[in-house]
Amino acid sequence: MTIDTLFGKEESPRKLRSIKFKQIRAVYEIMTIKEDVSQYLRPFTRYTSPEQVFDTFSFLRQETKEYFFTLHLDGKNRICCVDEVSVGSLNQSVVHPREVFKTALVSSAAALIILHNLCGAQHKLCNVKLPVM
User: For the chain, give me the number of helices (H) and strands (E)?
Assistant: First the structure.
């Protein structure tokens, strides 16, 4: 017995095909909000103290889920972008540093303010002061 009798004659393909690879480009989606944001964020406001940020985003205290926001500031400490990085569950919010800095680089932010709310009575349990760099 030979290989030809077991499997048949080996046939070579008639025409070689070329495979074209498509180039994949990263696309960033810009979402347009059709709501009057000036009720929440006054335009051209410089944020110079933590109290200003706390007063502006105090509505997060009533939320039932944990949110993680980054505020992108320009060179004059004005908000140029608000990024909702993560919406968590009742007691946790998963955030990776890559997601925080990716949009900051795209928006050419000069500075970042990071916001994270604690749901319910958890804010009474947390009394940690972290140094800001």
Answer: 4, 3
For residue 106 the two structure tokens come to 């795209």
Region of residue 112 (left: phi > 0; alpha: psi -120 to 50; beta: else): beta
Just give the CATH number of 48-133: 3.40.140.10
Boundaries of every domain in the chain = 48-133
pLDDT in tens, 27-63: 555 555 566 666 677 778 899 999 998 888 888 888 8
Q: Which of 94, 88, 40 is nearest to 64 (CA)?
A: 88
* Structure token digits, residue 52: 């200003």
Strand, helix or coil at 123? Answer: helix
pLDDT tens-digit readout, 70-93? 999 999 999 888 888 988 877 777
Question: Which pairing describes strands 111-116 and 79-87: parallel, antiparallel, or unpaired?
Answer: unpaired
Question: At 66, which amino acid appears?
Answer: E
